[in-house]
Write a structure and sequence with these properties.
This protein has eight helices and 23 strands. By secondary structure, it is α+β, with helices and mostly antiparallel strands.
């Protein structure tokens, strides 16, 4: 009886433990994260008479595990292939294909502008990544804009400044940023500075490091057709604006922002609202002089974040220029670039002097310790109006420039306004 009971219990246990027949569904394969092709930056510019081709970089984000291809489509309403530029690989048919090998982390192609003797304006060329196959896929940054800057836009002035200044006109809005090192009549050759301002003939000059308002005002009063406004920063390094009264109106008074953010801004940004009289174009300009040196990097980063937040919130649809002595480079790698927030937001912001920063050190604004520290940032409302940017190498024309005027060169941006 005991054996029978034991067998019966064992039989029930087998019935309970053995599962019923079920359909076994295999797990789906783990999706392969194919590297995406992206442009490294969203825009750039190159002079028509550039000595070498401009390299345009593409990043994959990770290493490819197999070979693939992608296409680059070219479009422009202003530039003609072979007449105005060529590319490598050849894209005369409006596109070209780039082959990708297994084990790649990026690729590139190049554009060479064709120089001519015509004053035919800047030309914009757009590139788009399409048709990724094999070991690569389409990323997120799929468009790139390159501006070929016409090098015959202006004739040089005559006389002593023929090698460093060009003739400007009232059909353009011409804005300069200029650190005039610790300006006062005892530190500065005021007669030479006045001469340079007159020959330069810009519309608006944002100046930094004004140590003596009375000396500067007295100098400006001696220049026919110019006015000057400034804000006393209290440290002998004040900020202000010179403007040509026949072409520029200052609307209201200058103001400052972030007066209490003294860590980010040892000198509060000075803001002016200006109108270009011939065209009626209105522009808001913010004049900066950020903290210098390596120990000021965190403070410059904080300043950049505050400025971007202010413009995004308060001036989102306005023509805005942020000019001045930024005291840092804009061409550093993203990991160390304190202005990367502006650069990443390429839809809304561009440094018009990036072409200078990425170019030869002979054109940088601070030649004594070769670096490019003086910048002009524009918002997207001015993208189509921007014409050119140049460092005004006054030290080439006047060898006493550094001793008599400044250790910084002025930087000029031109905007074609109607």
């Amino acid at each position: 009886m005991t054996k029978l009971l034991f067998k019966f219990i064992l039989f029930l246990g087998v019935i309970i433990v053995i599962p019923g027949c079920e359909e076994i569904i295999p797990k789906p394969p783990t999706p392969i994260n194919t590297p995406g092709v992206n442009f490294e930056i969203a825009f750039n510019s190159v002079s028509e008479d550039a000595a070498s081709a401009v390299q345009i970089s593409l990043l994959f984000g990770k290493t490819t595990s197999e070979a693939g291809t992608f296409d680059i489509e070219i479009s422009s309403t202003e530039a003609t292939y072979n007449t105005d530029y060529t590319t490598s690989p050849v894209g005369s048919g409006g596109s070209f294909t780039i082959d990708v090998a297994s084990g790649s982390t990026g690729s590139s192609f190049s554009l060479t502008p064709v120089d001519n003797a015509l004053s035919d304006g800047n030309k914009i060329i757009d590139f788009t990544i399409t048709n990724a196959t094999g070991g690569v896929s389409l990323g997120t940054n799929l468009t790139y804009e390159l501006t070929i800057i016409d090098d015959e836009q202006n004739d040089p002035v005559t006389g002593d400044y023929a090698d460093c200044l060009n003739i400007l006109s009232d059909s353009t809005l011409d804005v300069v940023t200029w650190n005039i090192e610790q300006f006062s009549s005892s530190n500065t050759n005021t007669a030479l500075l006045a001469e340079m301002i007159e020959v330069m003939d810009a519309d608006i000059i944002g100046v930094q490091e004004i140590s003596s308002y009375s000396d500067f005002s007295s100098m400006v009063n001696g220049i026919d057709g110019w006015n000057f406004q400034y804000v006393n920063q209290g440290d002998g390094l004040s900020l202000g604006y010179l403007y040509k009264t026949s072409e520029i109106t200052l609307n209201g008074s200058l103001t400052t922002i972030y007066d209490n953010e003294t860590s980010a801004f040892p000198r509060a940004p000075v803001v002016g609202d200006f109108t270009h009289i011939p065209s009626g174009t209105q522009v808001t300009i913010m004049n900066l002089h950020l903290k210098c040196c390596d120990d000021g990097e965190a403070r410059r980063l904080a300043a950049a974040e505050l400025l971007k937040g202010y413009i995004d919130t308060n001036l989102a649809t306005e023509n805005v220029l942020v000019i001045g002595d930024y005291n840092d480079d804009i061409q550093e790698s993203p990991a160390t670039n304190v202005f990367q927030g502006f650069i990443d937001d390429a839809t809304n912001y561009r440094f018009v002097d990036m072409i200078i920063a990425q170019g030869s050190s002979s054109n940088w604004s601070y030649p004594g310790w070769p670096s490019h520290l003086d910048h002009i940032l524009m918002t997207n409302e001015l993208f189509d109006e921007w014409q050119s940017t140049s460092t005004l190498k006054l030290d080439v024309c006047k060898t006493s420039y550094e001793y008599d005027i400044s250790d910084h060169r002025p930087v000029l941006a031109r905007f074609k306004v109607n």
